[in-house]
Amino acid sequence: MIEQKGILFILSGPSGVGKGTVRKALFEQDTHLRYSISMTTRNMRPGEQDGVDYFYKSKEEFERLITQNKLLEYASYVDNYYGTPRDYVEETLEAGHDVFLEIEVQGALQVKENFPQGVFIFLIPPSLEELKNRIVGRGTETPDLVKNRLNAARDEIEMMDAYDYVVVNDQLDHAVSKIQSIVQGEHCKRERVAKEYKKALEVN
Predict the structure, then answer these.
(1) How is the chain split into domains, by residue range?
(2) Topology of domain 1-33+98-204, per CATH?
(3) Which of 45, 51, 100, 130 lies in the 20 to 30 Å Cα band around 87?
(4) What is the pLDDT of residues 8-58, one digit of tens each?
(5) What is the dihedral of CA 50, 53, 54, 55, to 10 degrees?
(6) C-alpha span between 107 and 98 (Å, rounded)
(7) Which pTM value belongs to this model?
C-alpha cells in the first residue's frame, strides 16, 4: 500500500483579501487538513491552551529556536514573537496529514526560503476596487490606513510570481473548491506518487 506523506500548503495574499474566511470555510469541508499551530512569546489568555491555540514559549526559548533554524518563518509584533515551528509541521506531514498555513505575504516568502517543497497559493481580490470595499467595510480603518493597505496590497500582488497557484477570491465557494482541486491535484502529481510507489515496490 502506498503511504503518502502530507503536503504543506501555504495560503497567502494581501491584507483584506479574505484569507481567514476562505481557510475556515475550507476546514469546514476538508476535515483531513491540519491547521499549522503558531508559536508565540505572548502570554496565554484565559481559555487558551498550549498546543491548541499556540505553542507558548519564553523569549529566550524562541530566540534559541531562531538560531537553530527551527522556525519556517517568524515576525515580531508589539514586543512579541510569532512564528511557525518546523518540527510540528514536519512531524504532522510525516504522519500523512496535509498541513495548511494561512499567512501574510512576507511570512510566506520566508517559508519558501526555508521549506521550498511547500505548495504556495496566492489569494487575490477580483480587483483593487473590491479590496478597497472589503477593507472599508470592516469599519476599523481610517482613510489613511485604507490608502496604506491598498498601496501595500499593490506591492504584494506584484510578488505573485513567487507562488505556484493563484486563486481569485470572487465568491467564497468558488475559491474553496479551487483550493480543494489544488490539494487533490498535488497529491496526484507524478513525482509524489512515483516516489512513494517505488518505495512500496522495494518493500515487496
Answers:
(1) 1-33+98-204, 37-96
(2) Rossmann fold (3.40.50)
(3) 45
(4) 999 999 888 889 999 999 999 987 899 999 999 999 999 999 999 999 999
(5) 30
(6) 19
(7) 0.85
